[in-house]
Write the structure tokens for this entry.
Amino acid sequence: MTDSQRRASYQDLLDVPPNHCAEILKGVLHTNPRPARPYRNAASVLAGELYLPFRRGIGGPGKWALLDEPELHLGPDPDIIVPDIAGWRRDKMPRIPMKDAAIFITPDWVCEVLSPATEAIDRADKMDIYAREGVGHLWLLDPRTQTLEVYRNESGRWSRIGAWRGTATVHTEPFEASEIELGVLWED
């Protein structure tokens, strides 16, 4: 951002039409229309696959708070960032804040569902912010290529753990206690 550009404000974010997702990343307002059905479907199904074993503890260890599209305020001059799904270990966030939209606690895990409109920002600005703020794990889910990429934060830098495609069955960090069948994420 140059000196002549002003930093986006929270009011700028609030002024965005309701059919758009808005974020302030590195001082710049980014808006995109709500994702098309294949992208929302993949995120919703993944959240559902994780909910019982990791939030409720049914068939898994529990002890996670999972939220779709939380509004995160991260950093000293906060970036306002909305991952598709985020998760916190319960020892870090024992209760989900219910009063405000904003959450100021860095997640332990985030998942971004890549689309043509968001992939460049997800892979650049958002990955940088998540690494800087100490998010432990990042998943990039791409319905177009039917791919899941998994990253671990190692001292502020992303280390790629692996990538899986198609109908693979995945056991991976931080949810290795359960398996995820990728094929269900791409179904109509």
